[in-house]
Amino acid sequence: MVFLNNKILTERRSFFAHRFSMQKSVRQTLLMGTLLLATFVSTTLLSSMSQAATTADQWLIRFADAMYSYHYSGVLVYSREGQLDTVELSHDVSEAGEEARLSYLDGIPREFLQHGNQITQKISGETVASDRIHGRNPSGRFSGGLEQVKKYYQLQLKGQSRVVGRPSVVVEIIPRDNQRLGYRLWLDKESALLLKSVTLDPLSRELETFQFTSFAFTQRDKPLKKSDDKAAMPAASLPWLPEGFEVYMVKESVPVSETHLANMFSLSDGISTFSVFVEPLRADSLKEGVHQYGATVVVVRKVLNDNLAQMVTVVGEIPLHTARKVADAF
Prior knowledge:
By secondary structure, this protein is an alpha+beta fold.
């Protein structure tokens, strides 16, 4: 889906930190669980709009407002590549920050908890990963403001529908080039909360779907004040980036396994996000290759610069050919 507020370090380390000690299916579960949590628990606001929405722009602003005005919970299904997961989600926001809980209802008991800027992942009740949200909030979405986002995406209102028994409006976010993904959102007409989302590739083919099958919300007596994080962007650059993507976080010596450290660069265009890891080549480094899991792609490439062998890994919500081009530029 769209509007992931924090494609954060936890998500990346979920893929890397367990690559030698956990089975592939469990690693994927950790990665996608964090994505699911971030998808439905967080957005950022551009400006306030209390009047009725009549355009795609206005509906997205209402959507960004909604998390500060409502508590919500429900059961949702997440489908991609013929696989279906059922998860239970609850979300709230207080002066102390966001509080969210996402639990898988199928297979091994798995749970993701967010308390403020801390995200914890558990399997069968045992904590397997915990990390803090670092760096400037890329707004998970709308980081440069709606007008900045509209340089790279068209916003269209696609009519009305019905999801989980509730009237909804359909908003489509269409890339202006083939270097980013598209999104289709079903927003609750009453609250503007997200009921369903579909991520689309550059040919408008569905990559993954999130949809509530039960949904409840309560309105706050008084909406919370929205955060206004205007931290400066880090001074960093990569050999090639799609137009509109900017580095919003840089971390050095990030643990990506029990013995490996990497430099990490996280990037966003205000809608989509991805990260790049650069680490020395070792005998037990990941093999070169490409992987795709729903809307999330992973490209691993070996590079040799000035007789220094390194592994470059690109992971995030961008088209596969874009991720390849980012990696090949090193």
